[in-house]
Structures
1.
Amino acid sequence: MSGPWNDFNSAQSNTNVIPKGTLAKVRLTLRPGGFDDPSQGWTGGWARRATTGAVYLDAEYTVLEGPYARRKIWSLIGLYSPKGPDWANMGRGLIRGILNSARGVSDKDNSPEAQARRRINGFGDLDGVEFIARIDIGTDTNGEDKNEIRAAVTPDHRDYAALMGTVAPQFATAPAQGHAPQQSATATQPSQPASAPGAAGRPSWAQ
């Protein structure tokens, strides 16, 4: 006898991982780590320092729309690694992409206005920012798949306008000190996590 309740090979896999390459509008929330280094511009207690000496932003992304709405992804934005500049360079590149996406700036635009939109007063300006993310898949310390965000989608992408839903705000100058307000916890509470938070998501150079 064979049927859907006898043979489960065709059943949907019960995985929490959002497919690699999915584009989604997300809200970035920074979880303060209490580490400052004014010489680097790291103020406000947003950065976090690991026991290895690596420094990063502890980022939480909430998917706002689409089939994965309300799902959360936890990922790190590298600021410094004692193993070399690669992690910091990746972190700066991701933040550049986030600013381009959130503020409607083409990555190819190097006008004075575009350069001003890529500046922030501090990491607090990133807290609450909404942008289009390209969702990736990495592995945690147990070798299990987990979602990560390593890139943002800018207005150069053909699907950007549709995903943003509205024209992104245009800033003539860097934003004022402070950060964007967040929705209530109820509005962003996930029905099912996309990945687990914490040290498990750290890249090898942050361990």
2.
Amino acid sequence: MMTERRDNDLDKWLTGAENTGLKSLRSLARGLRQDFDAVTAGLTLEWSSGKVEGNVNRVKRIKRDGYERAGFDLLRRQILLAD
């Protein structure tokens, strides 16, 4: 459904997830229904924030690695000089 951008299957999948015995899966389905338009757009549109999210996660990891052990200058160097 996600790789082939088939938003038509989303409602069927959510209904199946809501009827399952798994509490966490029902909770996920309920959350996806609350923002159904955004989820549908994410499944159908070509645009993605994946690269931005990847950079944010990389910066957070670098920050965690140096938490309370390094100053701003080292953090800045790691971000700017990272591969």
3.
Amino acid sequence: MSQQVNRAATQSITQKFLNKETLKYVFTTHFWGPVSNFGIPVAAIYDLKKDQKTISGPMTGALVVYSAVFMRYALAVTPQNYLLFGCHVINEVAQLGQGYRWLDYWYFGGKEKAEAK
């Protein structure tokens, strides 16, 4: 009995997720563009552990604006691209964290604290 239930569940999941529409979506730029773009937020999250003095304030600011623009773009296109939106939400949060670290180091006494250690 449990084998029949497992088989039915497997078939149900397969039919729901591995169908023509899903495969058509996976082979479009609507999917691969955001997937390849995820390298930016991954690098930004990794950089949150690096030394604060290596952060570029202007570049961080540019990336904050870039992600904000593309979050809006991801919702403006038809059909809406939630994968692209999610990528840029993650990047926006990571870049804002980097921006805070940059401001802390150069303007809020972080440099003096680091030199005191």
